[in-house]
Design a protein that fits this description.
121 residues, mainly alpha, rod-shaped
Amino acid sequence: MSDSGDRATNPHNPLLTLAAHELRVVSVTATRAHAEQEGEMRAFADQAAHIKAKARAVAVSCAEVDQVHADVQVPARACIDLVNRLQGLREKLAQKCDGGGAGRIWRRRGPSRVRRRRGET
């Protein structure tokens, strides 16, 4: 029999012991690296979920702002139409009161809004 086959399988062989030790070190290092990588991946996944939630909230807020803007446009257009109609009515009234002349300010008739002191007439 040859000693070389026995040396390779001998548990007291220094090369075998060194190789086994290095294998354990590499295995522990790989396990730690894998665990660290999994932790980083979980952190990235959590961060991505947080960003997605914020993006959904922003989208909802944008939709609400768009709806408010659309809702405001209706009374704004109505206000513009009413102001234009009022201007037209004022012009017609000024023409009727002045006989077609411009520049005269139409005033409401009634008591003066200026307070008078007692004793003044």
